[in-house]
C-alpha cells in the first residue's frame, strides 16, 4: 500500500511550480519489499582485523515481528552491542531478550514504519575459521543465514595497505560498508538546497538524495554552496552520512564542510572556491594566484598527508600511517605554512577511505558560538569562535562542501538526513467556550474548551529529518487533551500515531518535505484544574529523530483568575441548633481543606453531613458536624456510718448536664424506705447536700445517703403473767412469770458501745376495777448482783453490749428463776381483796456512759 500524501500545488504563470508536501507516515504501513527475501537479509563486510567482521541485518517489516538471532563460531554478541548498532533512522521499538543459550538473542520489533538496519562487529571464536549468523522466526524456522569466512577478511581492497598492528581496532558506531551510490538510510532530497556546483566534481545522484563531491578519479576540484544563509544567532544541527571512498592508504585528497560569508557570493558566486590538491577546494594552495574561500571556517576530512616542499600544511599533523585526519581549518593565504593552520585535529584510528558510510553530525551552539562535529569511528571535537564578525564579517553564513583529488583520489559523497537552518514557531491559544480570539494569553475557567495551535515556518534550508521526526506538545498540568482533536494542516492525526506520557503528546513518524510554507498543528484541551489564580503554560517542541529539541514555540497561557469560595463548618445538635460558632473558610478555589470535629462540653460527636475533606469550590459549601448529648451514670449509694452498703447502689444513665432531684426518684425513695425498715435513722446530715440538684457531668455523678445505726427495743412482752395464786398467810412468791414475746434489744450502731436497760412502773400493782386496792412494792427485778424493787421511778436492771450488730435477746439470755428477771413477792396480809392485779412496765434502753 502506498503512503497517502497530501499535495498542494501553486502554479505561477503556468511555468514555475513550487510544491509543498506533507506526509504522515503512520497513516499506512511501510511499503512492502518487492521480493520476500528483501524483507530480512544479512550482509557481512570485512575488517582489517583478521578475526573481526561487521554484520549488517536488514529487517523490512518492523510493525510487529519477533526474530531469533543465533551465532555459530562467533564470540557472544551481547545486548549492549546490539542496541548500540541500531541505526538512528529506525522509528520503532526493539527489545533484546536473553535466552538460555548465550549464542541466542530474541529481538522483539514493533511500532516501526521503516526498515531496521542493525550493524555490529563480530569476532571469531579462537578455534573457529568461519562463523555463521542465522535469523529465525518464532517457530525457529530459518528466514536468513550468512556464513562468515574470517580468513577472507584479509582480502581487503588491494589499494589498502596493511594497518599498523600496534594500533588497536576501533569500533565504528553505526558505520556501514556500501558504495557511494547506496547510503545506509533514506536521505533528504537536495535538489533545491544547493546552488549550482562549482568545478569538476560535485553532482547530485540517487534522485538528488546523495551529493557526490568528487568521483573516484584524479585531478578534480569542486565546491557547492547552500541557496540560503543560516543564522548563527540560532543553533543548527546537520545530520548526515559521509563516504570517503575505498582507497585506503592510496586515497586523496579529501573534502571539507565549510561555513563562509565570502563577499564574492553577491557578485560572482562561481569564484568562491579554493585550490586543488592540498587546498581541498577551500584553502590557499601556496602558489601565486591560488584561490581560497574567504571569511570561512572548514572541518576537513583529509585522507592525504601533505608533507612536500610546496604542499606542506599537514606537517604539524603527522602522517598517521596514511590513515587520514579530521581538523578545523580557516581558509587563508597562510594555509601552506609549516604550522599553525590546523586549529585542532584528530588522527583517524583507521583508514578514512575504507568503503564505509560513517555518521557525521555537525552542531552549532549559538550561546557559546561553538562549532562541533562527531564522526563515527573517529571521534568528536569542537572549535569556539569568539567574534563572529571578525571571523565571518557578520552573523549569517552560507554552508556547503568542497573537495579535491590529485594524483591520489577517492570517491567522496554525502547523504543528509537533517539540514541546518532556521525554524520559527508561533503558538496561540483561544477559548472556544468563551469564543475568545486566538492570542498568546487567554482567560479560562474549569471545564472550558481551549484550542492550542502552533504555526511552524522553516527557512529554505530547514527540512525536517526523514528518519523519524517528532513533534511534542507540552500541555500544562490542569489541561486534558481532547481525543481526536490533533490536526496538522487540516488533516486529523489518528490516535495510533500519538503517544501520551503524562501531559506530553508525542507525535511520531512525521516528515516535512518542503519549507517556505507555514504548517499548522492544532489540538483542543479541556481545563480540568481545580485551582485558581494560576497560569497554565503550554509549549510545542519540534524534535529531531534523536528526540533532541530543535526548536520550541513561545508559551501559550491559560490564565485562571483568582476565584474564592466559602466553606461553612457547622457544629450542631440533632435539631441543627448551633452548639458552637460556625467556622468560615474563605479561600481560593482549589485550596484543600480538611476539617475535624471539635470538642464541645457535655456533647459527643455523632456524624458528618457534607465533605469534611475536599477543595474549595465556587459554589457555597456547608459541612455539618452533628453532636448528641453525652450520657453518664448517676450512682446513688446507701451506706452506714462505717461505709458498709445497706442497699444495692442504684445506677442510672443520665444525660450530661442534666440536674436530678433525688427526692422525686421513686427508686431512691423505695431504697430509703427499705433501709429505714432495717432500724436505721436518716438524719439531714446523712442526705446528699445536693439531693435536689445533682448535676450530671462527663464523668458521671455520685450521691450517697449515710444512715445511722440505732440502739432500741426491738421487741418486748405485751403481757407478763405471774399466774393465779391462793392467798396464804405465808405470802406469795413467783420468780418465773410467762410472757407472750421476748424482750430484745436492737443495736446496729457503728461502735456497739455498752448500753443499759432500765424499767419502771407506770403505777403500782392494783385492781383495774378497784384502783384503791394497791399492792405496793411487790414487784422487783433480780439483777446479776442484787434485787431491785420496782416503782414508778426507773431503775437500771442490766448493763451489757452487743457482740455483733443486730438483736440481743434479754429474756432468753438473762431471764429465768435461777437467773435474772422479774419477781413477785406479796407479803402475808397484803392482799385485802381477791382479784386480778395489773400494772404497766415501761422499759428503756440507752447508752451506758
Automatic annotation (TrEMBL):
InterPro entries noted in UniProt: ConA-like_dom_sf, Lectin_L-type_dom, MucBP_dom, WxL_dom
Domain WxL: 705-847
One Pfam assignment: WxL
Protein name: MucBP domain-containing protein
Comp. bias (Polar residues): 161-175
Keywords associated with the record: Membrane, Repeat, Transmembrane, Transmembrane helix
Keyword ATP-binding: no
Annotated segments matching region Disordered: 161-182
Organism: Enterococcus haemoperoxidus ATCC BAA-382
Transmembrane segments: 7-24
Residues annotated as domain MucBP: 566-628
Amino acid at each position: 500500500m502506498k503512503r497517502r500524501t497530501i499535495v498542494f500545488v501553486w502554479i505561477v504563470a503556468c511555468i514555475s511550480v513550487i510544491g509543498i508536501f506533507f506526509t504522515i507516515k503512520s497513516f499506512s504501513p511501510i511499503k512492502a519489499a518487492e521480493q520476500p527475501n528483501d524483507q530480512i537479509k544479512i550482509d557481512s563486510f570485512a575488517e582489517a582485523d583478521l578475526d573481526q567482521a561487521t554484520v549488517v541485518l536488514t529487517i523490512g517489516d518492523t510493525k510487529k515481528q519477533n526474530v531469533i538471532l543465533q551465532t555459530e563460531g562467533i564470540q557472544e554478541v551481547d545486548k549492549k552491542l546490539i542496541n548500540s548498532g541500531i541505526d538512528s533512522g529506525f522509528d520503532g521499538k526493539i527489545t533484546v531478550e536473553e535466552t538460555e543459550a548465550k549464542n541466542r538473542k530474541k529481538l522483539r520489533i514493533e511500532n516501526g514504519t521503516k526498515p531496521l538496519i542493525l550493524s555490529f562487529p563480530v569476532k571469531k571464536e579462537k578455534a573457529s575459521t568461519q562463523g555463521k549468523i542465522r535469523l529465525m522466526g518464532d517457530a525457529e524456522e530459518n528466514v536468513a543465514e550468512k556464513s562468515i569466512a574470517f580468513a577472507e577478511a584479509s582480502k581487503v581492497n588491494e589499494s589498502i595497505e596493511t594497518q599498523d598492528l600496534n594500533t588497536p581496532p576501533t569500533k565504528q558506531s553505526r558505520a556501514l560498508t556500501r558504495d557511494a551510490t547506496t547510503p545506509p538510510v533514506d536521505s533528504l532530497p537536495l535538489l533545491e538546497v544547493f546552488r549550482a556546483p562549482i568545478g569538476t566534481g560535485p553532482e547530485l545522484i540517487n534522485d538528488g538524495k546523495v551529493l557526490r563531491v568528487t568521483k573516484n578519479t584524479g585531478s578534480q576540484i569542486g565546491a557547492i554552496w547552500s541557496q540560503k544563509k543560516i543564522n548563527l544567532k540560532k543553533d543548527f544541527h546537520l545530520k548526515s552520512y559521509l563516504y570517503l571512498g575505498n582507497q585506503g592508504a592510496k586515497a586523496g585528497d579529501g573534502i571539507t564542510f565549510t561555513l563562509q560569508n565570502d563577499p564574492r557570493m553577491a557578485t560572482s558566486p562561481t569564484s568562491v572556491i579554493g585550490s586543488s590538491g592540498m587546498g581541498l577546494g577551500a584553502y590557499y594552495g601556496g602558489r601565486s594566484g591560488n584561490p581560497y574561500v574567504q571569511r570561512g571556517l572548514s572541518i576537513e576530512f583529509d585522507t592525504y598527508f601533505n608533507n612536500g616542499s610546496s604542499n606542506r600544511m599537514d606537517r604539524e599533523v603527522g602522517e598517521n600511517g596514511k590513515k587520514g585526519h579530521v581538523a578545523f581549518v580557516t581558509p587563508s593565504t597562510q594555509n601552506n605554512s609549516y604550522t599553525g593552520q590546523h586549529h585542532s585535529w584528530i588522527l583517524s584510528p583507521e583508514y578514512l577511505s575504507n568503503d564505509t558510510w560513517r555518521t557525521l553530525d555537525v552542531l552549532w551552539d549559538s550561546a557559546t558560538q561553538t562549532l562541533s562535529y562527531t564522526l563515527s569511528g573517529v571521534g568528536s571535537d569542537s572549535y569556539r569562535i569568539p567574534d563572529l564578525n571578525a571571523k565571518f564579517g557578520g552573523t549569517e553564513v552560507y554552508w556547503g562542501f568542497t573537495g579535491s583529488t590529485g594524483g591520489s583520489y577517492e570517491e567522496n559523497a554525502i547523504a543528509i538526513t537533517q539540514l541546518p537552518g532556521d525554524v520559527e514557531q508561533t503558538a496561540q491559544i483561544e477559548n472556544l467556550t468563551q469564543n475568545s480570539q486566538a492570542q498568546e494569553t487567554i482567560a479560562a475557567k474549569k471545564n472550558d474548551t481551549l484550542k492550542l495551535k502552533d504555526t511552524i515556518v522553516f527557512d529554505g534550508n530547514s527540512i525536517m529529518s526523514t528518519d523519524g521526526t517528532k513533534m511534542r506538545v507540552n500541555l500544562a498540568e490542569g489541561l486534558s487533551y481532547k481525543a481526536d482533536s490533533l490536526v496538522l494542516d487540516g488533516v486529523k492525526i489518528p490516535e495510533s500515531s500519538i503517544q501520551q506520557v503524562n501531559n506530553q503528546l508525542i507525535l511520531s513518524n512525521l516528515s516535512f518535505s518542503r519549507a517556505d510554507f507555514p504548517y499548522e498543528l492544532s489540538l483542543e484541551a479541556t481545563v480540568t484544574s481545580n485551582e485558581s489564580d494560576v497560569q497554565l503554560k503550554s509549549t510545542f517542541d519540534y524534535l529531531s529523530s534523536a528526540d533532541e529539541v530543535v526548536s520550541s514555540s513561545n508559551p501559550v497561557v491559560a490564565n485562571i483568575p483568582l476565584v474564592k469560595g466559602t466553606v461553612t463548618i457547622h457544629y450542631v445538635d440533632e435539631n441543627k441548633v448551633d452548639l458552637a460558632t460556625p467556622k468560615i473558610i474563605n479561600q481560593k478555589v482549589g485550596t484543600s481543606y480538611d476539617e475535624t470535629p471539635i470538642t464541645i462540653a457535655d456533647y459527643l460527636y455523632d456524624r458528618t453531613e457534607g465533605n469534611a475533606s475536599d477543595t474549595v469550590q465556587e459554589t457555597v459549601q456547608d459541612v455539618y458536624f452533628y453532636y448528641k448529648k453525652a450520657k453518664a451514670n448517676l450512682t446513688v449509694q446507701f451506706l452506714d456510718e462505717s461505709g458498709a452498703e445497706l442497699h444495692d447502689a442504684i445506677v442510672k444513665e443520665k444525660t450530661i448536664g442534666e440536674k436530678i432531684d433525688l427526692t422525686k426518684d421513686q427508686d431512691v425513695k423505695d431504697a430509703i424506705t427499705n433501709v429505714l425498715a432495717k432500724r436505721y435513722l436518716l438524719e439531714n446530715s446523712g442526705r446528699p447536700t445536693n439531693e435536689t440538684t445533682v448535676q450530671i457531668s462527663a464523668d458521671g455523678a455520685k450521691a450517697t445517703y449515710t444512715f445511722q445505726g440505732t440502739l432500741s427495743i426491738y421487741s418486748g412482752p405485751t403481757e407478763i403473767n405471774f399466774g393465779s395464786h391462793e392467798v396464804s398467810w405465808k405470802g406469795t412468791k413467783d420468780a418465773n412469770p410467762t410472757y407472750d414475746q421476748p424482750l430484745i434489744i436492737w443495736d446496729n450502731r457503728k461502735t456497739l458501745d455498752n448500753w443499759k436497760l432500765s424499767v419502771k412502773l407506770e403505777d403500782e400493782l392494783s385492781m383495774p376495777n378497784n384502783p384503791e386496792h394497791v399492792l405496793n412494792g411487790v414487784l422487783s427485778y433480780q439483777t446479776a448482783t442484787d434485787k431491785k424493787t420496782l416503782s414508778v421511778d426507773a431503775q437500771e436492771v442490766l448493763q451489757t453490749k452487743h457482740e455483733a450488730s443486730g438483736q440481743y435477746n434479754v429474756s432468753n439470755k438473762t431471764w429465768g428463776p435461777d437467773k435474772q428477771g422479774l419477781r413477785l413477792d406479796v407479803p402475808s396480809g397484803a392482799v385485802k381483796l381477791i382479784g386480778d392485779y395489773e400494772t404497766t412496765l415501761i422499759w428503756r434502753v440507752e447508752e451506758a456512759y
